Amino acid sequence: MRSPLAAPPCAPDAEPGPDLDSATIPHLIGLMAAGTLDPVDLTRAYLRRIETVDRHVRSVLAVNGDALREAAGSARRWAAGRPLGALDGIPVLLKDNIDTVGMGATAGSRALVVPPTDDAELVRLLRAAGAVVLGKANMSEWGNFRSPWATSGWSGVGGQTNNPHVLDHNPCGSSSGSAAAVAASLAQVSVGTETDASILSPAGHCGIVGFKPTLGRISGDGIVPISSWQDTAGPMARHVVDAAILMSVLEGRGVDYAAALVPDPLPGARVGVWRRAGFDAEVDRVVESAVDVLRRAGAEVVDVELPHLDRITAAEFPALVTEFKHDLEAYLRTRPGAPRTVRELIAFTEADPAEPAGFGQERFFEAEKAPPITDPAYREQRRTATALARAAIDDVLAAHRLDVVVAPTNAPAWRTGPDGDPAGLGSARPSAVAGYPSATVPAGFAGPLPLGVSFTAGHGADALVLRFAAAFERAAPVRRAPGYLPTLP
Question: Whole-model pTM?
Fold first, then answer.
């Protein structure tokens, strides 16, 4: 059961131009430099795909009315031989919790429909690099921090985003639209954000690359928060090289992550494998296949277990509740016309007819009653969560003399329904709470549903993690364009 939307991957009407699914940023930039690709034509091709394909995926909340004008500016720079860099003319989607002048930042909630008055720092960096801001991507409302019974990919602003591989299945969250749109070739790259698995998990479920950098590498300025102790933006892409190029711009410190993708790190490397065995038979099969790939490429593979998971989880959640109240209320003070407190958000949601979706505001109620960040019990919770998460990774790396740890990113996507999300693998939690870098790469399929594996290392090892992800991608090029199946056969 294959949808006609799936072929050809470039565009439903087969208009001329590069195959958007397979084209990398370096390839597109090479065409622009040669004068054979106009940034306006590239942007128009993506806008046409949004118009024709996104009615099925529902990943794009809003299109930038100035996108073609921005692309025309890029075209003039290329024609004059003065491009701004490796993103000049490249269309980028932004998760809708990122402040963007003229386009808003709703975090999926109608409480934030009054637009921000300034760009987030990362948006300023993208504009300075010549990127075309194509639009805003849907997300799980409030970053999935409103209710434990929330459905990933749903928001009061954008409704339900679908997984482009099987449309009645879930894209996971909270960077749902950012992942699904890139998988469906509705933008070359996108920017997501993560507190705990919100880049890695939707990237894995949608069959793309996602990179969560070391905490602090990308500015959190102008991003609707959950916790400044864990939140980070990060790139989402169909190719590791594109994620690396986008990461260089988002960090804004002159690091060339694309250049750091070589040489191949796998020959002679020591890779720990955290299998998470027994959670899902298809996951176990794909992990074993990934291990075979790593061994054939010359890596020495060591089975490991990351400790302290239950204790990390027990300390992390109450800490996040306190941080959410503190950080969100500080952010709300920057948004004229928006509610100012969690209590006011609760009242808004209760009164808004667009908001009911079969789940409540349990986490908002908890946050309303949360202690301040000066509270000793909270401070101990945060200290415990962070220390244990860092130890879980650092100690295993040191004990086994490992370069990286690889783990399954996700189980197969579930059918979207009213009962919220099932329990996940949880392999992203240690790196999320530790603030350490992790990258997911497509590794296989359970039927038509993508499965990924994630590479994780210690603090500041961003270039190393991306290098391993790129090497695995070269050794196991399994990613494929979505089939847009209406349901599983």
Answer: 0.96
